[in-house]
Amino acid sequence: MVPMAAQVVVVAVTKIQTTPAIAQNMNMVKPVLVALGLILSFLFMGATKAAVLPIERADLLYHSYEGDGVTIDGPSVLLRKNIAGKVSVSANYYVDTVSGASIDVRATASPYEEVRKETTVGLDYLNNKTLLSTSFTNSSENDFEANSFYVGVSQDFFGDLSTISLSYSKGWDVVGRRGDESFEEEADRQKFGLGFSQVATKSLIVGFNIEHISDEGYLNNPYRAVRFLDSTTDRGFSFATEKYPNTRSSTAYSINANYYLPYRAAIYGDARIYNDTWGIKAQNVKLGYIHPIEDDWIFEVFLRHYKQDKADFYQDLFSRPDEFNFMARDKEMSTYTGLTAGVSVSYEWQFSQTATFKKSAVHFEWDYMTFDYDDFRDATAQTPVGEEPLFGFSANVLRIFASIWY
Amino acid sequence: MGFLNKASIRLLLVACIATLSSGCASTFESINESINPLANLEPWVKPYERSNLADPIMSMDRNPVASAYAKHVFESREGARGADGGAGGGCGCN
Fold first, then answer.
1. Which chain B residue is nearest to residue A334, measuring alpha carbons?
2. Is the N or the C terminus of chain A less surrounded, counting Cβ atoms within 10 Å?
3. Which domains are delineated in chain A?
4. Which residues of chain A does B29 touch, with a Cβ-Cβ cutoff of 8 Å?
5. ipTM score
6. Rounded to an integer, what distance in angstroms lies between the CA atom of residue B19 and that of residue B15?
7. Can you list the residues of chain A whose pLDDT is less than 70?
8. Which residues pair with A42 in a beta bridge?
9. Which residue among A37, A205, A265 sits closest to B11, beta carbon to beta carbon?
């Protein structure tokens, strides 16, 4: 007997026409539909044990990033409160204050300062083993406005050893440009996510995630430019506006694992592969170790490596401004590697489980990042055109925050 | 239409596995047990064996406010995006 929810999905699928384009899209959403059928089956059949809502806590964080001539810092506040054991509401307010200019901007324009404010409100609803989540996010700055809506469902099953989750989000961006009031472009974004985690042993949890992202509209960064040979200038080159395709689709696959060691400590790792229709291919891997000391201190270290191959239309130096239909010199489109090492320490105070506040903690986290580019040159160097040194930079990232559990 | 039939069959299969895994009473259970070796599969980590998994150091997202910021930092400086969040849960021991 097929559950009603699965029947609905089957009927929906069989009514779709099979043109090649639609069939291609169906291949993309097929795993999502299958997983949706699975989750809805559980949802309508009922369950015998309850999953759990997210933990109630409040966090106040100060973040700071310094690197490549840019300083970004600000606060972030995250609050979460449960209601009647069924509903959890959350709110996050986050501020970025950006000053300075990265190498992309230093070569073509002046340093600047701007503030980005982001607000997210979320709601989770628990029904037996099923957790339904939704949230809305607004991000606002003087030249960029973004709104996004998220909905997700997560289902525990197989004695709570397995969890499957599905998510969808849709975003709407409005892109402006400082000093040009007439400039206004739009972009729409969609994300489809599928995740699965499994308790493998009493000390090991493993997980797998797929996410497909599809963008359409104005996808350029309006402040970044391509460089082309120009013998009429002293430096031998000039800059022109980048030209990006107006669609981009990407798919990322990741695996992760957490393992509890024979003594009270844990190691974890994750790996991801990525590709998109712009030709970018990337891989990253991360390994970490967490070591508590008694009930008060938690120390953590990690190492993360990232490698990327350039977009098809990326070049450091073009021969002329209209050489190709699509042209980019954004360094995030180039071929490069990144290495991040992180260390963190937390100190916790445990209170009575019957007290208003169950636990509090302070945390200090520091990451050191390096990026080395294979085909992005430092255009500010005073050397013959095309012979500038390859660019690279390092950055320090801090997160200092306090938490209260209640 | 071939793909659609396959999708329908796959959904039926998934629904059957879901039925078996959830422990729901079903008149088809005994039939499935005889033809599907997975039907006898039971959760192999019992609730009383999950103390290690319940330790906060095993959480895939121990401090959401910090991990959200770290994710933003990487997304801003890397071309890749997506699939960087865990499915969460799986332990049922909070």
1. B79
2. N
3. 1-45 (no CATH), 51-111+191-405 (2.40.128)
4. none
5. 0.86
6. 6
7. 1-50, 109-110
8. none
9. A37
